[in-house]
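User:
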Amino acid sequence: MSETIAAGRDLGATAEATIARGSKSFAAAARLFDARTREGAVMLYAWCRHCDDVVDDQDHGHAAGSASATTPLDRIALLEDRTRRAFAGEPMAEPAFQALQRVARSHDLPLALALEHLDGFRMDAEGRVYGSFEEVLDYCHHVAGVVGVLMARVMGARDPAVLVRAADLGLAFQLTNIARDIVPDAEVGRLYLPADWLAEEGIERGAVGAPENRERVARLAGRLVAAAEPYYASARIGIDALPRRSAWAVATALGVYREIGLRVVAAGPKAWDGRVSTSKADKLGHVAKGAVVAFGPRRGTAVGRDAKLWRHDVTTF
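Assistant: Predicted structure:
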């Protein structure tokens, strides 16, 4: 029994270290969860971070310094196999899959959503070209929307109407990330701007990172940030259905990420001179604002979701 407890503590410590290194914004918000929810959220994050790093041959989002002999598609196939085995209850050697197995069992997570997330990595590995904004939203759903749903389930949400709004928050987060990272992503061959938007601005796909295109790229970043706003608004309604501590964490994360997008717009063509981020003081400010949202009067979730918002056709919410 003592060995089992010790192993659990070691796994928890590994997951905590992963989130502390991988995402300061999410780490700050996750501190606001109750203990059980925090453990689940952190362990789910550890699996997501591990998958991202394995596909890109990185370590916590940074170059790993070792060249893999396998292709990204090979690595995704391996991740999918191990994910299926973790959900099937097989013994897992890697901490990330031990963490996934524990959180999936504790919070009844659907395997289908985990596999949808891996499909998002496959889109990157295949060099998917996004012709329209709706196609970009489909990508955002896979890499972030389903994670929002999984996280909401960890928080105890089961109402499909609430889970759809959790997916909306994931979409908003990813649109913000895309806007912030347009130029650095382009420099490594990744482009998430819709082809029809690029055509409207007269930007060639291979010239998105060119200095002479910064003004036009900044306009497109503004369009992404503006497009994220109704998804943030939809997610805000869903927050009222979460337990108070979870609502506090999610409202804080929403505030932090939304501010990053607004800062990208405010910086204009200079947004990619450095990586736009928020300071510790900014994050603390959003913690306070999040508390007002979480512990104030609740509006309920009866407000209908805007029919104009994109929604993935899934039945696993």
